[in-house]
Design brief:
Length: 262
Amino acid sequence: MNRSLRLASLLELLAERGQLQVDEIVDLLKVSPATARRDLDTLAEQQLLARTRGGALSLEVAYDLPIRYKSEQNTEQKQVIAQAASALVSKDDIVGLCGGTTSTAIAAALGARADLTEHAGGASLTIVTNAVNIASQLAMRPQIKTVLTGGVLNPRSYELVGPFAEATLHELTIDIAFIGANGVDAMVGPTVHDELEAKVNSLMARRARRAVIVADSSKIGRRAFASMNLARSSTTLITDSGITAEQQRQLAESGMEIVIAS
């Protein structure tokens, strides 16, 4: 792993966990203790974390990282999840997509489907999103009608949040919404790092006939700061084969439908 990717991985781990110890970094990234300490010092100099004795703490600036820092994390799993999500979408559907790398992969998968992008005298699919990077990605797909909510841009995640985003969603109906999460726990359900994003994600899910949480298996069993407060009995989770049997059991008992993409 090259240095830039290693630093990005460190920030992603810190955003998820809140704090890290050097021995954890050694184990997770397969580097020496000296390399781990140098990397932490480098990020501390850039004011992206706070150094502690034997490790580091997250700062607000590293709380949720822009997609350019995340794009190399669990890429294969996210692509598999994206293909499984795409298979649930039919022509003429109205699809909701919140921000995040998995949702971005879903947008790419939908854009690559010939049956959804063929010329038929107009748009054959509508995608509603609060993520400016997804809207930009879909701008070159005239056969997909792209609806971008208003709102205040969160520069850490490229998502539009706040009352303007919520007002747009209140006026729309959605067939299926794909909602990313930083953690999926059997007790509290899906969670994200930012409370404003949690509110928009929750509203998008509630405006949909079917709400689908998309999260790779590294997110299962974790809790982030803000809960979406979704009813698990009406929520589907698409994840990868890295989910354990015990995690499956706990989530199924909470009422969540689980789809393992392969």
